[in-house]
Design a protein that fits this description.
The structure holds 2 protein chains of 2 kinds. By secondary structure, chain A is an alpha/beta fold. Chain A contains 18 helices and 9 strands. A 5-stranded mixed beta sheet of chain A has the order 6-5-9-7-8. In chain A, helix 13 runs antiparallel to helix 14. Chain A starts with 25 loop residues before the first helix and ends in a 21-residue tail after the last helix. The C terminus of chain A is likely disordered. Chain B is elongated and about 50 Å long. Classes of the chains: A alpha/beta, B alpha+beta.
């Protein structure tokens, strides 16, 4: 499905096997060194050594939050409980992102192996994979992989002749974006409405049915096995000072080479868009890139040389998110893009807390008023104020990040908002305008 | 609490809800290792069997699991994958994810609505098509994307829509 060229800027760790092996045959995975890390971890290493190795590697959660994975495992291990769970978050609801899908369809065993390693490290006997029902092929491949791993004694009772036993079950989502949030995901796994809970207690303390639960993203898991085999130092030598390793991005939108890429952390956007993506088709000009999906922000031309890592992106008002990257050219209107994202978050808001439930709706209404050219300057003020209110007041990550597209487009494309208000007689609303009135309002 | 309970279940025998289908659902539930945390799984199965989740099916599941009907309805209404209305023979899903939006899927869905004369989540008069706007089918590389049943049409243009829809209409003739 995805072609990857021999570009020197690419480095494949999480995607190491995708496209190279038959995902429906466990022996091909084993032939390429699969399940070696699991063997090494459970026969030669103690639980603490495994956790230590992951901590030293500097691996951070790839789902978007960037929480150190080793630390999460350590916290879960420290909990005293009869039973613990490890959950793989494969609820990739972020529109424009298909990295996890590529891994699950191309290399399902890498996730299963890493879950078993994680289960060993934290002391869990059971793992769950929460996967979207919209990914039937990924579900089929995972089921095949689970069955084959079970038949070959790589999952189940007494793996590798040790007294470590581990089983993995599939749980299906049913189409709710908020279920990517850990507490909502756990509620959904329990068969309930997928609404987030107040934290603390964090899932590492009280998660699935009240037991300590560790939730990691698909891509995070895909990085585990190479770290165990090749060592933490090798992994820590890649990337930037604070963000180690690589990141998978889905490059889509107005770009020549569409697809999934994996680059070392710290690669700049310019390198990704022009050297790997091949630039904008049709000879048009680059305008902006949206990272982090509906939770992220747009990044304009001025910030193209920002290195891609968790902290740099947050400092310019966007976020890493799970890795969707949507490129927009000069014909796209940024106010409409912001409205589009708000429509999405408004739709997907679960309704549990008021700032998000009502705030996103009001934000959308104001944006709708502006794009239908009925807005006033007062609306712009209200929009900005409300955006920060929703950001500060919401319960979970969905609401806290929902206004990001509005805030960042207002920051970088203020004159497009103004154009909707001042240039009421403009012939085309679709971006090809020059704002007539650049009054001195700063965002 | 979620253990099956011995409550008398009287399913309604409407034309579209035959007893065999309820039996099939019951045997699926009976074969589960545990019904704890299995509600979503059961609803998936029920939707596969009946095509949608009408009130009677929801109540049937609630009684079978010994939980309030409101709890079942709460879950059904929360998730966009579950539907309480019957679906047409073919489901047309137009992706309205970001990548598709940037490539003009808003115009595609307007045209489809026009051509079928229905809004989203509605069924055409002849019962042939249901239109759904979905969030990302995960095939953003081929944006804009639409899917009819399980077949994905990539890089859809407004001009192609007639051909695509008619090819399904003609199958029925």
């Amino acid at each position: 499905m995805v072609e990857i060229s021999n570009n020197k800027k690419l480095l494949r760790i999480a995607l190491r096997n995708c496209g190279l092996l038959n995902p429906e045959d466990i022996f091909e995975y084993i032939a390429l060194g699969g399940y070696e890390s699991l063997g090494k971890a459970i026969t030669q290493m103690t639980q603490d050594q495994v956790i230590d190795e992951i901590k030293k590697s500097g691996l951070r959660g790839r789902g978007g939050g960037g929480f150190p994975t080793g630390l999460k495992w350590e916290l879960t291990k420290k909990q005293k409980s009869q039973e613990k769970f490890i959950i793989c978050n494969a609820d990739e609801g972020d529109p424009g992102a298909f990295m996890d899908r590529s891994i699950l369809e191309g290399d399902p065993h890498s996730v299963l192996e890493a879950m078993a390693i994680g289960g060993y490290a934290i002391g869990a006997r059971k793992g769950l994979i929460y996967i979207r029902a919209e990914y039937p092929l990924a579900i089929a491949r995972l089921s095949t992989a689970l069955q084959q791993a079970g038949e070959n004694g790589l999952l189940g009772e007494n793996i590798f002749g040790t007294d470590f036993s581990f089983d993995i079950y599939l749980k299906y989502g049913a189409g709710a974006f908020v279920c990517g949030e850990e507490t909502a995901l756990i509620n959904s796994c329990e068969g309930k409405r997928g609404e987030p809970n107040y934290k603390p207690p964090y899932p590492v303390e009280e998660g699935y049915w009240g037991y300590p639960t560790c939730v990691n993203n698909v891509e995070t898991f895909a990085n585990i096995a190479p770290i165990i085999t090749k060592g933490a130092q090798w992994f820590a030598s890649l990337g930037t000072e604070k963000c180690k390793g690589t990141k998978v991005f889905a490059l889509v939108g107005k770009i020549k080479n569409v697809g999934v890429i994996e680059v070392p952390m710290g690669t700049t956007l310019r390198e990704i868009i022009y050297d790997i993506g091949g630039g904008i088709p049709g000879g048009r000009k680059f305008k902006a890139v949206q990272t982090g999906g509906p939770s992220g922000g747009v990044i304009g031309e001025a910030n193209l040389d920002t290195p891609m890592d968790y902290d740099s992106l947050i400092s310019i008002g966007s976020m890493m998110g799970s890795g969707g990257m949507i490129i927009m050219d000069e014909t796209d209107n940024m106010v409409k893009i912001a409205k589009f994202y708000l429509e999405f978050t408004m739709d997907e808001s679960c309704g549990r807390c008021t700032p998000c439930r009502i705030g996103t709706k009001r934000l959308y209404e104001i944006l709708n008023k502006i794009t239908s050219r009925k807005g006033t300057m007062a609306d712009l003020d209200a929009l900005k104020q409300l955006a920060y209110m929703v950001k500060d007041g919401s319960l979970c990550g969905l609401g806290q990040t929902a206004p990001n597209p509005v805030i960042s487009t207002m920051k970088y494309f203020w004159d497009e908002y103004l154009a909707f208000i001042k240039d009421v007689d403009h012939p085309r609303g679709e971006g090809r305008y020059t704002a007539k009135n650049k009054i001195g309002i700063r965002s | 609490m979620t253990k099956p309970q011995a409550i008398d279940v009287n399913p309604s025998f409407k034309e579209n809800l035959p007893k065999e289908k309820f039996d099939e659902l019951d045997s699926f539930v009976n074969n589960l290792e545990t019904t704890r945390s299995a509600l979503i799984e059961i609803l998936h199965k029920a939707q596969k069997i009946f095509g949608y989740l009408p009130r009677d099916v929801q109540l049937h599941i609630a009684r079978k699991l010994g939980i309030p009907g409101a709890e079942v309805f709460g879950v059904v209404s929360f998730y966009s994958y579950f539907t309480t209305k019957p679906r047409g023979k073919h489901t047309i899903s137009v992706c309205t994810g970001t990548a598709c939006f940037v490539k003009g899927s808003d115009k595609i869905i307007e045209r489809v609505k026009e051509k079928l004369g229905i809004g989203s989540n509605e069924i055409t008069e002849d019962g042939l098509f249901t239109l759904k706007d979905v969030r990302c089918l995960g095939t953003c590389g081929m944006a804009p994307v639409m899917m009819i049943d399980d077949k994905v049409f990539g890089r859809v243009k407004e001009e192609d829509l007639d051909n695509i829809i008619n090819s399904y209409r003609n199958k029925e003739l």
